[in-house]
Amino acid sequence: MEITTSKTTRANESPLKDLYFKKDGNGLNSELSQTTKDLFLRDLTLKFIQNISIFVKLLNGDDRRNVDGQLKEIIQSLEKLIEAINNIEIFKLSQTINDQVDELEKCLNTMIYELKMNRTERVISSALEMARNANELFLAITRQNISS
Fold first, then answer.
1. Which of 27, 42, 105, 129 is 20 to 30 A removed from 83 (C-alpha atoms)?
2. Which residues pair with 2 in a beta bridge?
């Protein structure tokens, strides 16, 4: 579903992202509460999982023309997620969250390799593993917020 505001935005881009990021585009807005930052991070994680789901559907479908475009969406959403994590001190210092991010990066690299080798079943397996790791990251973010 595409979100429309005064200008059309991409389906997986938060229409409120301007509120979350500094005007210069470097990092999260420091004036935001920790809860707001947590919610934004969860939103990014869910969008990442959604991108993986779309990618797997494309791989399983007859029309695979959009696979490369969706892979780029996955990479971009992972980059946004990592950037947001690195801009929130409590998460940047969490070993559990850093381990989850490392696992996501490993899965992405494996998935890209398997895609280049044209091993569709292994690509899907890697994508599903990445979705599980993203879910674990989502839960770790939630637990970190509750314990702090």
1. 129
2. none
